[in-house]
Design brief:
With 623 residues, this protein is α/β, with parallel strands linked by helices. Helix content is 59%, strand content 7%. Helix 22 links the parallel strand 7 and strand 8. The longest helix is centred in the first third of the chain and has 50 residues. The chain starts with 7 loop residues before the first helix and ends with a helix.
Amino acid sequence: MSSKVRIHQIQALRAVAATLVVLFHAKLAPGGFIGVDIFYVISGYLITGIIVKEITLSGAFNYRNFFLRRAKRLLPASISVLILTAFGAWLFLPPTIRSSLGQDIFAASIYISNYLFAWWQNDYQNLNATPSPVIHYWSLAVEEQFYLLWPLIIFTLWKIGRQRLVFRGVLGITILSFLFSLFLTNAAPIWAFYSLPTRAWELGVGALLLFIPKELLEKKSVSRTLIVWLSALTLPYGVIRFSDNTPFPGTAALYPVLATALLIAFIHSWPPILNDFSRLRFVQWLGEISYPFYLWHWPLLVIPSTRFGRPLTLLERFLLIALTALAADLTHRFIEKPFSRRKLSNRQTTKFALAATLSGVMVASAILLTTKDDISLPNGRSVSIAAVMQKPKIYDDGCHANYGNKNSPECLYGDVNSKRKIVLYGDSHAAQWFPALEKIAIDEGFALISLTKSACPAVEVDRVNSGAFKNSDCNAWRDNSIQRIKQLKPEAVIMSGFQHFAYPTRYSSRDAWWLEGQRSLYAKVLNSSPNLIYISDTPKPQRDIPSCLATAKADECDANEKSDPRVAGGFIALDPTPWLCTDSCPAIVNGIVAYRDASHISVDMSAALSNNLRDFLRSNGVI
């Protein structure tokens, strides 16, 4: 995300890119994540230029020198911020996250964090987890993976067919990467967002600028100036138009990528007002510190928020952005600049790069060795964090469908030979009742069929497409599950769902959206069973409960929001709120940690409520 080139327009673009990302994570610019795409185009243009220039002038390419220069430029700041972030996170964040923190630091140290975070975020159950303070290192990992291969590709193409083949090769790779990005953005959006093969085209677009004849670019004209203005305005359009619900990269990434490419291509046609803006001392300073500004912003925003157990206020966000700028400036002055000025031999640079990487790995290992696996409760008892955060067994059995799945396996529990059947149907907030129902099924002698899917509530609502979630997959799974329920003809269908998803803007309120979905669900399952039971949602914790209990007093973790108990349609309604709440909804109920995260009741809590649920089923003639 950086280079030694100091063209004032490029510096201005760097400043804009870093600022947009910071504002996005501060929740001040919904589409500010396009700053990463701006960085990629700039990097593709500058670094490919360095590679092509060396090959053209010398007929060879010193791969080692190339990487040592990058290590000397990038590693001092990145490893310093990484280690300081690791220490701050270890000190201020709950011990419950140390295992994942150690893994994240390790992955960031060796530039594979993009794939770790893709795998992590692809699991719906992790979406309520404490965010990693180094997740932003994913974009650095993509770049370094790209430059691990890029010089070899460029040099090989040049040796075979000189510059013409290099151009064709870069163009082909860019097109193939873009097409793959389109495919994966639809098929597996999380992997599309984080993966090198789906991001390479953005760097490739920057590289392609080098092959446009200079006379076409340097000549000034009104049309070129208009293109510059259009490109400059496209960037704020993307910031306003896009959000974290926008499928990305895909076609949406064309806006910032092409806009940035055109701004670089017609850099000689920038109008005076844009040139004056780019020359402002503040803008040039931001461009100068853009790399450490990017490195510092996320940990300085996320660590306080997690520590406070709440979103940051507007004032706090502005103060932390100012602190980020200060930290970036100090990092640039006292770490980046001194290293860039030092005359190091290749041997010394190699030793430094290995030592820096090893230090990150050692810090990660040290964090993993300090992992704490217990929480002390007010009654003096200690409980295992792993036990509290445990998920119902249907997850390990492959019986809880994840993103992309359109069918559930057989998933038969309880007395599997019984002719009496009960079906559990819904999302993870239905699955959280599995431990209670399995215990009842075993005791009462009926078969339990589990039909649950992540982020897909039984209630027939359309959700806002976000990340790996797609309504089409959810609707297909619902149709297949309801068809199966009708074939099973169970004595009861027990349904539930998470009520707090973002709802489509065409609805006037969450209530209207949810109650309409409940009525639609009832119409679809009508006559499939004599007992159609709907369990309204459990209280919604305002904090990740295990993390909160590990760092705060128990009563500080009790701010849990009651869910709306209303149920539309002709369901037999069950409101579990009185089982978990009195005047308030505490984190610990009858000596049991009630929630395994910031959303779901724990396995132990579910099992402890089995008698309450049994009495309800018995009173309604189900068992």
